[in-house]
From TrEMBL:
Annotated protein name in UniProt: PaaI family thioesterase
GO molecular function, one term: 1,4-dihydroxy-2-naphthoyl-CoA thioesterase activity
Spans traversing the lipid bilayer: none
Keyword terms of this UniProt record: Hydrolase
InterPro entries reported in the protein's UniProt record: HotDog_dom_sf, PAAI_dom, Thioestr_dom
One cellular component (GO) term of this entry: cytosol
Thioesterase domain residues: 53-131
Keyword RNA-binding: no
Length: 141
């Protein structure tokens, strides 16, 4: 299967039938899986709070890493893998942990033989930018 076919198959399975993934810890839900672009949503919860009582930055970083990496995965051929080499995140505003929906979208910028780059954005339900980032992925052929 291509990367896109694999992701569509894997996420079509009930959670109890697929291997656990990091997104399960934060309740990520697939919004879209297209070639070169992926969107996941999540709900901010108190279990994701930092000591100040707002959403921990690592949650948005995980959401960005997931959507950007999966966007790269959608462009890969059968049997080709990837891994994050570098992740850069910019935080724009704090997020309360009161059940707000966040949507992360990742898009491929460049796909080469040995590396790929992607960009991502996290917005709240009102479309306000919460965080954005870039990644470089190593391609394993």
């Amino acid at each position: 299967m291509t990367g896109l076919e694999f992701l569509r198959f894997a996420f079509s399975l009930p959670r109890e039938q697929r291997p656990p993934v990091i997104g399960d810890l934060f309740g990520f839900e697939v919004q879209s899986l297209e070639e070169g672009e992926v969107s996941f949503s999540m709900v901010s919860m108190p279990s994701g709070a930092n000591p100040l009582g707002t959403l921990h930055g690592g949650v948005c970083a995980t959401l960005l890493d997931s959507v950007m990496g999966c966007a790269v995965h959608t462009r890969l051929g059968p049997g080709v893998g990837y891994g994050t080499l570098e992740l850069k995140v910019n935080y724009i505003r704090t997020v309360p942990v009161d059940g707000r929906t966040l949507i992360g979208t990742g898009s491929v910028i460049h796909l080469g033989r040995s590396t790929a780059t992607a960009e991502g954005r996290v917005v709240d339900a009102d479309g306000k930018l919460v965080a954005h980032g870039t990644t470089t992925c190593m391609i394993y052929s």
